Amino acid sequence: MADSDSGSDSAGGDVDTDAGVAADPVRVVAVCGSLREESTTCVGLERVLEAADRAGAETELLDLREFELPTFDADRDREDAGDAEALAARLRGADSIVLGSPMYHGSYSSPLKTAIDYCGFDEFRDKTVGLLAVSGGAFPVTTLEHMRSVCRALNAWVIPHEAAVPNAGSAVADGEFVDDKLEERVATLGRRAVQYATIEPDPDSFESDQNVGAEGK
Description:
Elements: E1 15-16, E2 21-22, E3 27-32, H1 40-54, E4 58-63, H2 84-92, E5 96-102, H3 110-117, H4 121-124, E6 128-134, H5 141-153, E7 157-158, E8 163-165, H6 168-171, E9 172-173, E10 176-177, H7 180-195, H8 206-209
Parallel strand pairs: 3-4, 3-5, 5-6, 6-7, 6-8
Antiparallel strand pairs: 1-2, 9-10
């Protein structure tokens, strides 16, 4: 599907044509898996949410620096694990979730992994999820692949379009993207998060069928 800024990328104008009344706006929540003060991942997610906002969505950025999330321990109830329950509740309230992470050792970051480990099917099943990855070097393919695999294990519907920011040290200057084409690719993810927020989900995946720990987190 070609990327575009056409009106078809919106959430149907937020109007329930059958009832003739305005529908609730799509809610897009992004999770930043980088804890750096000057985070390129955060800059990218801000652009994603700006595009989603322009497409008519309500948006929220969850900065994991603001949450107390102890290392995941399956023997500890989520309610007793710092801000884990509050984070999970924010994700449950989303129509679309966008996950953003820097590439660490060929995968995604441990803060994001911890955040996801405190969640389960209640937060991700049949939900639209977008992916953004950032790397200091070349295209962060494996980071995107690993996040996509985890989302499928949670029965999320992952947007085919994914955004990657390679060579992060030169991609952003003073909080702004240097390359307009790269910024547009990132912004497209935000529009897709709105456009596909209510898409009919795929059948349950094989991975989720084996993910017994995700039920009733």
